[in-house]
Amino acid sequence: MKRDQGTKAINTRLLSDSELDNLMNSFGAYLTSQGFTPLVHSRKLLQYQAQTQGKRGHGGKKSKVVQVSVSVTDLPIGFGVDDGPEVDVPVGLGFGISAPSLVSSTLVSMLAPYAEDLERLKEDSGKYLVGMTFNKRVPGVACDHCGYVQEVTIPISISRVEGIRGYGPGGSVTVICKKCNRSFPVNWDSLTIEIDMTWKNS
Fold it and tell me: Does 17 score more than 90 pLDDT?
């Protein structure tokens, strides 16, 4: 086994918990077959080590500890609507692999079926918003009772995304007037919201 240590970063599509568990368990099984023992084995972190024999010197063979580390981080995009609070949504995973070159190559090949280009992940990220709810601010809504005009916040559930635009169905919300403190319904048709997408540093 070559012992020169290297570090690689591989991006993948978003994996389900079971897919990630199976992949990390496959990594662990491979490392165990190569003589490594686990120090840490969790869903998002593997640390294994092995003791190998070095070259024969004046005092005999010197052993060397070889370590393998696999760390998994989310690749999130921040989504914001109407200057509201940003929501971080993971759209992929980043695998950091530190291992001897032969071991690293094998682990990378095991990741290959899941690997994805970063730009492709960004292009496809809108699909992760479908089903999420954002708040849409609607100014100029008059109270049914006293006529006081105020801004109303309407929850929009996104049913589809095209580019940077999300589309939500119509509905209604009950609003409490800020002046007379009485409630009244606000109905709306389907709305379109513009989505701001920003890569986050993981």
Answer: yes
Per the CB < 8 A criterion, the answer to whether 126 and 195 are in contact is: yes
Pairwise pLDDT comparison (61 vs 95), residue with the higher score: 95
Q: Is 7 exposed, middle or buried (0-12, 13-18, 19+ CB in 10 A)?
A: exposed
Please provide the CATH number assigned to the domain covering 5-117. 3.30.310
Predicted TM-score (pTM) of this structure: 0.71
Which pLDDT band, with edges at 50, 70 and 90, does 187 fall under?
confident
- What distance in Å separates the CA atoms of residue 154 and residue 134, rounded to the nearest whole number? 8
Spatial separation of the C-alpha atoms in residues 38 and 31, rounded to whole Å: 9
Q: How distant, in Å, are the alpha carbons of 82, 96, 150, 165 from that of 174? A: 20, 48, 13, 26
Q: What is the mean pLDDT of residues 22-27?
A: 97
Pairing between β-strand 5-13 and β-strand 87-100 as defined by DSSP bridges: antiparallel
Give the integer Cα–Cα distance in Å for 62 and 150.
Answer: 78
Q: Where are the domains of the chain?
A: 5-117, 133-199
Cβ contacts of 146 within 8 Å, gap of 6 or more = 177, 179, 180, 182
